[in-house]
């Protein structure tokens, strides 16, 4: 019996070892770049032909670039149709509950111009290679809320996901390009549309492409972010610093805040979960930024599956430098004439707040673009089960940097009749600066005081 027991033990250990090494089999990972795109989307189009096959995305010269702002490769296209409150029932099977609620809340003004589907997503080969490696090596531990064997890979933890949580991880670890710095504008218009733009300088650094980052010190860092409010004057000089960690169970997000009025740097544990969002007038919380961010450990995540819906896409018109913020920001919602929706396949995930956990959102209904893993639609429900807030992320492909960015993110409060819109940059002198070369020292608490000097 002893040899048999030893053999069984050896087999068990072998299986355990293989489960640590491989998230999916070699055979399944081989689909990446063949039947699947290099990051895990279905390469083929749909049977109706309304979603085309992915053929590699936009080329670097897809349209003229103006001071870092992408030109519109599809400027000549006209909407196939426009969804309004009058015809919304005809299209409801391809709309999220939140989108349908927006038509009910704003029946006279909310609309969705739907264009031909263009699978424009493109990324560099390094991101595709990372996805392939992730598929074979990355594993979720601590009930799925932490990543193992990922610190040297950096992108797309689970390109062939098996669970809802793995889909969420793909959004959190999606390809974002190089270190960058830019000024984003956020606004919280009143019911009548009046608003004061808040200018926030955003600086982001990724340790694996920062020259002075030491792997032994930054192995658990996904990225650094520093937010400096530069206007209006009453808020200028306030700075928030975030060290986003990979394993937020073992090492929670680290955040610090510099208050210009007090001239003090303090730890800021509230910059997480449902802590108040920066300059948001109570209309969003910390983990509404980037559509969704931070540790996913307060929710149970259910993978509903994939479906086809109309989502914001190729939003070049919305990011155009020819627009003023007043052209975009209107009562109730952003100017929907400037938006573009397309039919795309998405991953549908539901997050339900765990028993005993605290968050103002009891449920999150999330939709992720299959070609980029970016969250593009999220419905937020309160503790009574009522739909409360609706978030839409208007994305576009930066075909020069080969990444997906937001032209704007809007979170609508259906009950208050107000919204917060962020990630706008139309009136900037230039677009996002990806030539930014920060030092690790730029993202230390000691650097906050200097960053906040008015």
Automatic annotation (TrEMBL):
It comes from the Bacteria. The keyword Membrane does not apply. Residues 1-22 form the signal peptide. It holds the Pfam family DUF1329. Keywords: Signal. CDD domains: LolA_like. The keyword Membrane does not apply. This is DUF1329 domain-containing protein.
